């Protein structure tokens, strides 16, 4: 009897423990993907996913069996139709993924759902304090994560199983993306990007990663999101490097693991403030709040670094991490809007949009998240621009109206904005004080 390898966030064939598990058990396997409309039903992330599916299908010689619908119905139906002995997956730790898998397991009856590996170097929930409780702060988690260590990449070989080319009833063609994926999709593209990054930018990563103008980060986030490459592979390649770049890169990967762990331990934090004091935070609302939000989304706030970031997001489905922090701070502390408005907009646009990293990245900036980062550290968008885009190149790249303004002056516009660029929609100094007042209000209530 064949086994089923059900692909989800692991759209690759190398370093895929699920495949080893399936191969150990059966010579024949069906490679399956379920198009679940509840996840990324449209937009750039779906286009990226479809691109990755096409790439995977090509690697499998056209034998990826794609079905559409509710996985809790489709997977058990497929298992019955193929008379499968087992269904293999890598574990999903998102709130939706966990409940879906529990249901699938029930519906499968006698056919076991076997979870091998996860999208993380260390599966969420594994790194705990001595007393068995979860870490709530990054640095101690990071130390423990390091000490825990991770496995070497799995040596998987897609040829060890015969891939079934079954004409199953529900099989559909892989839909064409609405638009071409914003970056090259799939495992080969991910590996190529990783090797380019190691050769060109890793050595300078510790300093360069904060500079949006230099664009020296790896841009692997969307590949990690869809599992075109596994963090284990990256950590393994870094193991022999003792430089600051490698150490910093490992640390950034650890943030991804930390946020997945937090979401696993406290699933409610996807949509609720981790720091409950913030439940009482007064936000702006009404038409002026809607207008401010709209200006932020469109990159028309009159703060050049904010607008550059928001336009990069629209154009590339990606934004530099430093600028994500700046625009998130601006939304929550200058415009006094709820972090989840911004988080939702990011999730609609990002090709790397990931519930754990996004919601907790937002909460971290908003001050209600996992960190000791004090709320009163409010980013000044002008100073941030001057510091991290010192020659103004990033702003000019994304805001064509400002291309005539030379050098770092582009951040302050001392001669006023050009006629086609807005005046600042708020005064940062005033809104900073307002944000601090609102914060004092909610903290004084306790
Ligand atoms: P690199 O600098 O090359 O980092 C390598 C990898 O480390 C990244 O691909 C990512 O997987 C991980 N990483 C780096 N920084 C972080 C971080 N702060 N938190 C978690 N993981 C990190 N990342 C997402 O993958 N998806 C999101 O939806 C997302 N939303 C964010 C929202 C906000 C408000 C903020 C401040 C950050 C968010 N991040 C998110 C984290 C980070 O901005 C991106 O991972 C990073 O910009 C991706 O680019 P890169 O691959 O070139 O990063």
From TrEMBL:
Binds 1 FAD per subunit. Its EC number is 4.1.99.3. GO terms for biological process: nucleobase-containing compound metabolic process; response to light stimulus; response to stress. It comes from the Bacteria. Keywords: Chromophore, FAD, Flavoprotein, Lyase. FAD binds at residues 205, 217-221, 249, 252-259, 352-354. One of its GO terms (molecular function) is deoxyribodipyrimidine photo-lyase activity. The keyword Flavoprotein applies. PANTHER family: CRYPTOCHROME, CRYPTOCHROME CIRCADIAN CLOCK 5 ISOFORM X1. Belongs to the DNA photolyase family. This is Deoxyribodipyrimidine photo-lyase. It comes from Gordonia humi.
């Amino acid at each position: 009897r064949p086994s089923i390898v059900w692909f989800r966030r692991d759209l690759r064939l190398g370093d895929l423990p699920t495949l080893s598990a399936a191969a150990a058990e059966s010579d024949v396997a069906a490679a399956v993907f379920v198009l679940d409309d509840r996840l990324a039903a449209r937009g750039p992330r779906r286009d990226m996913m479809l691109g990755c599916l096409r790439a995977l299908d090509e690697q499998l010689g056209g034998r990826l069996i794609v079905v559409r619908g509710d996985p809790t119905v489709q997977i058990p139906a497929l298992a019955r139709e193929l008379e499968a002995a087992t269904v293999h997956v890598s574990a999903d730790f998102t709130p939706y993924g966990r409940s879906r898998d529990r249901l699938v397991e029930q519906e499968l009856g006698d056919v076991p759902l076997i979870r091998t590996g996860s999208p993380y170097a260390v599966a969420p929930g594994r790194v705990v304090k001595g007393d068995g409780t979860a870490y709530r702060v990054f640095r101690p988690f990071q130390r423990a994560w390091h000490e825990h260590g991770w496995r070497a990449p799995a040596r998987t070989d897609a040829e060890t199983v015969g891939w079934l080319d079954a004409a199953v009833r529900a099989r559909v063609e892989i839909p064409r993306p609405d638009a071409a994926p914003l970056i090259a999709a799939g495992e080969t593209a991910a590996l190529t990007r990783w090797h380019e990054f190691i050769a060109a930018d890793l050595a300078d990563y510790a300093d360069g990663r904060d500079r949006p103008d230099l664009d020296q980060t790896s841009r692997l986030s969307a590949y990690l999101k869809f599992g075109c490459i596994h963090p284990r592979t990256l950590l393994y390649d870094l193991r022999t490097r003792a430089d600051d770049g490698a150490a910093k890169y490992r640390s950034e990967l650890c943030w991804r693991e930390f946020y997945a762990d937090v979401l696993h331990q406290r699933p409610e934090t996807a949509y609720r403030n981790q720091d409950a004091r913030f439940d009482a935070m007064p936000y702006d609302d009404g038409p002026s709040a809607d207008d401010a939000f709209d200006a932020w989304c469109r990159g028309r706030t009159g703060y050049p670094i904010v607008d550059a970031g928001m336009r990069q997001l629209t154009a590339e489905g990606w934004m530099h991490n430093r600028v994500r922090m700046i625009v998130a701070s601006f939304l929550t502390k200058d415009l006094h809007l709820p972090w989840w408005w911004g988080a939702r907009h990011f999730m609609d646009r990002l090709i790397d949009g990931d519930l754990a990293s996004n919601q907790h990245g937002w909460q971290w900036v908003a001050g209600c998240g996992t960190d000791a980062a004090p709320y009163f550290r409010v980013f000044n968008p002008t100073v941030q621009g001057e510091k991290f885009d010192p020659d103004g190149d990033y702003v000019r790249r994304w805001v064509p109206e400002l291309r005539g303004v030379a050098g770092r002056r582009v951040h302050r516009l001392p001669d006023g904005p050009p006629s086609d660029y807005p005046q600042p929609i708020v005064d940062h100094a005033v809104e900073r004080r307002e944000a601090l007042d609102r914060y004092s209000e909610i903290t004084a209530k306790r």
